[in-house]
Structure formats: C-alpha cells, structure tokens
Amino acid sequence: MATGSMVLGLVVAPMGWVLLLAATVTPRWREFSRRPGFPWDVSFSDGLWESCVEVISVPGRACQAIPQETAISWPMQMLRALTVISVLTGVLSYSLGHVGVRWWTDSPNPKLTGTAGLLLVLSGAMYLCATSYMAYKVLENMANPQTPAGDKFWLGTCLYLGWSGGVAEILAGICLAVNFQRKEESSAGNVAAPYELPRRLGRATILSPFAELRLTPATQHRPPASAKGGPRADPMSHHTRPGLCPAGL
Length: 249
Hints:
Blueprint: H1 4-25, E1 30-33, E2 42-46, E3 50-55, E4 61-65, H2 68-71, H3 74-101, H4 110-143, E5 154-155, H5 157-177, E6 199-200, E7 203-204
C-alpha cells in the first residue's frame, strides 16, 4: 500500500513541474519598466528564447527572437540546456514514481519510487542552478557602475517561478527518496511453523518420535521376551501334554 510520503511526493511533483514549464517558456527572466528614453507605459522583458515589448495601455505585446550573438553564447546555451533537461527529467521521474507506487496492487516498489525521488531532486537542483545564475548576472549588471541606466534590468517573474518550482521538485523528491529505507512487508505471519505441538485441554502434549512403533518383517514373528525374574517357558512343554505320556511310565 502506498505510504503518505509517496502520495505527498506525487501530489507536489506535478505542481512544481508546471511552475518550471511556465518559467521555461515565458519570456520574463529579466524585466525593465519605465526605461529611460521610452514612454512610461512601455515595459521590456527578456527570456531564454525571445524578447518582448509590452505597452500597458494597449493589450497584447510584440515579441521577437533574442539576438543571435546572445543565443549562441555559452551562458545562454547552458541555461537552455539546464532548463530543458530539468523539465524532461521531471516528466520521467513523475512517470517512474507512479510505476513504483503501483496503484493497482498493495505492494509498492520502494526501489523505483526512491529512484524517482532522486531524479526529482536532480531536476529541481538543475533548475535552481539556472535561475540562480541568471539572478546573479542580473544583480551583477545592476551593481556595475559602468552599465548604462537603460540596460539595468530587474529580476523577472520567471526567476521566482523557477525558484518555487525547483524547491517543490526537491521536496517531492525527498518524499519519494525516503522510501529507499522502507522495509518490505514481512510475510512471517503467512509462513507455517516447522512443527506444531498438539494441544489438549490447554496443556501441550509432546509426542515422542518412538511413541508409535512400526514392526518390520524381521520382528513381526519374534516371540516376546519374558519379564525379568519371571518363569521361563519349558522348551519341551509342547511334547508333554496331559494324557500323552509314554507307555510304561
């Protein structure tokens, strides 16, 4: 039967995964509102795949792919790889967790659920690394006095989504990983004892293995031994019956 930690892990895991997916595809890793030289109602935001411009007074936004030199840089390639692998690992671990719990039976597989938990922890850790690196670069750019005022972006909404989703994935993974220590249910109650002692009126009666003697063919016709000190049988008694004495005696 599934334990409480298994159920909790499988409930929290998809919630964190949705947050990670939303953070990956949404272009709000860094934002800039009221940028110098632009109207006050225009906001800018950048993501891993595209950059967007949004006018508050006009519904909708205009987006385009990020510049080529930024897309091919190793930090952006690393961020993309970490986020995509994290999302795919989350899907794999969530599916593996359901297989390990085995809802259709009463005996879950602790090894599969534990492995799914470790993969979830890995998924959350990778995404936390990606969001933390982006936050570090944004804060470093803001603190640099040589950075123009129009290029000092702020932390975007997706960073908070990524942090929340990463923590949720790690917590869900821990709930599943603790099942590595879960012992299999003992079946000693279903195993019969090597022998049972018969009971009569509440008192145990121990039966000796020699209580029932089985005669072999060699001992079936053996005459019984005489008791110690008792009269011995006369070997000639069968020749001296009454009335059959020899003549002349």
